[in-house]
Amino acid sequence: MKPRILELRKAVLDKNDEIARTLRARFEAAGVFVVNLVSSPGAGKTALLEETMRRMLERNWRVAAIVGDLATENDARRLARSGAPVRQIETGGLCHLEAELVARRLEGWALEELDFLFIENVGNLVCPSDYDLGEALRVVLLSTTEGEDKPNKYPPMFHSADVVVLTKMDLAAATDFDYAGAVANVRAIAPHAALFETSARTGEGIERWIEFLVARHWEAATAASAAPAR
Amino acid sequence: MACRCRFLAHLPVTLEAMTYARVFHETPCGLQPHALGEPQGLEEFKQAAGSWRIQEPQENRRKESAMHELSIACNLVEIVEEAARAAGAVRVTRVRLRLGDLAGVVEDALRFSFPVAAQGTLAEGAELAIERVPVRVFCSQCNAERTLTPPFVYRCPECGASRLRLLQGRELQVESIEIEENHDETAHPRAAQSSARQK
Q: What is the pTM of this model?
């Protein structure tokens, strides 16, 4: 019997991309600026977010977070200390967040009442790069305690970043962090990405980073209101 | 365990998975062994596995990111099976996939994961034919297309400009599948007999 060939031409992650598109439209309609944070485990996503949200709340920004973790709720608990509403996605072994998981976790949340929603992805520099979550901004963290060649080792992730944040800058001297090398590597793999240097512990660079977020949110909001209705 | 990936949903069922769990501990995937449930004894493990194929752990090289490829493979099988079922297929014999060099998917790991994900589906036993897609960019300074090679430094290899437009290289796409349909003699013995009588 002759086999029949069926043309599909379908992206393997089609389903995820479609849900992500729907999410993005929802976020834009609600006027909430969504930031997807990714990095290897222990690069300081939670610490950066804790400090960022605490300061933004002080300025009356309405911020919230969704945290993806394989098994524990530790990060969600830490983030909740900032005073912001936090929801947890326990992925139960899945090494990245998918759009559907985020969509499900959003149920019953009034997005219109938020200015910023941070999504803390599962600590991983490989898998999350393929999964669009409908975010406006993808932020990849690189800590000074990691090798400065991380961008070269994980080009798909760094290439997909809108922003690269160097974290734990207060430890740079102690770890002999090759700052110039790291910046050169980021610039080489992701020349389009905005670059920030922060330390959640000393507060270094956090203000600039928040200003950037606010500016991008403002840009997105004005672009959306200026766009003709479709 | 609450997981959308069919394979992971059946954990702990294969030794491979357990092996991954340990390997992953030290990888960027960051998967911790406890995330896959309490490790069990080998015998209980084989029993729990039931009809699932058990492979003794052999070599763990190049499987660092296989958990990712496993979930990719599950997505792939889902798409393939849906299309095959809609077309009335009884079996999928080949899956043709385009895989970009910047897709973030390790080919070997995907090849390894595919049969595992395909078990018990119409795609079981199907051949996975992978066509690699090189990273091509358009350099506006040279006004020409260029190919980037690992580590995919985002610069024109000729003039060094970084104002590039990505043309291809992030593909992860099922091109086509080859299916067998339900009108062969073994599937319809009576139909086969009657056609034999007519001859």
A: 0.76
